[in-house]
Amino acid sequence: MAKLDLFKFVPFRLNRLAAEVSAALSGEYRARYGLDIPEWRVLATLGFRDEACSAQYIAQCTRTHKSTISRAVTTLMDRALIERVANADDRREFRLRLTIRGRALYEELIPRLLRKERDILSCLTAQERKDFAALLGKIECSLDLVQGREAVQQTEAY
Amino acid sequence: MAKLDLFKFVPFRLNRLAAEVSAALSGEYRARYGLDIPEWRVLATLGFRDEACSAQYIAQCTRTHKSTISRAVTTLMDRALIERVANADDRREFRLRLTIRGRALYEELIPRLLRKERDILSCLTAQERKDFAALLGKIECSLDLVQGREAVQQTEAY
DNA sequence: TTAAGATAGTCTCATTTGCAACCATCTAAA
DNA sequence: TTTAGATGGTTGCAAATGAGACTATCTTAA
How far is A150 from chain B (nearest CA, A)? Predict the structure, then answer.
């Protein structure tokens, strides 16, 4: 008779763990800065990369639906955390980048989030953290989730 | 200057990985059997445990909101995949269990899902899979995500 | 007993998010 | 050129889901 223990089933465990970790982090960016996850992803992408980039690029990098990114961009512009400039080469697209204010918020937020991540992973030894990252990497790789420096074709999931 | 590479940030990676793995699995239970995630979680919990259990118990085990479970239970009863019997000891609660039909679906579904899980993890060696499971376990443990045989008090996240 | 508080489950409401249609613009081929 | 198809971005709509009110029932203590 077939049986499946949910608590040993990796897909379920990943879901639950991701939800829990997100909840733990959201205290930092939601409660403190009024950002939701898509907004945070936009900031994170713009803050990390030096050049301005398009909404489409952010959507591909973060594997977030373009309409979700579009809404996040609107909100962030309303809050003057990011700005966009027309792209002369292709007038369909806009180049997005952090404003001074957005950069300041980013600089303030990052150390907090890194500290949270460290807290969450503090139950592992340094070696275990390394191993964990490597294993995640292997799985991401086989699921074709790896993103290089260039944008990758969005493979619309299912 | 503070920086954070999203692709190296574990919370982000977990989110993305969980979403991708869920999408890969949903082909099995959504497309083929018309189940959504909460419904699948109810079936999985009932199928794994031998005794009937309450909706509350399922909510706690799977860390899913009770209203979500309530809706899934309604749908599954409409489809005659589960049934509920009044609990004489406590008339607020119902004991839920699979019907013959529900059990049959469960038996058919489980091997498919296990095969999918195996596919996803096939990029790891047997030892790596073991390590990965152990590391997940440690993190779950420190986040208090571990569920024993008995129900655990729901710590309403944030 | 009775009353206060806890708990199981349902339901309504608001929010979030994916989908798909849509517009503007670009590209490539006739 | 002109036209067909692809692409960047926005928006309306519908489905999913969490929060919390609500009912019914249980428990505990006065």
Answer: 13
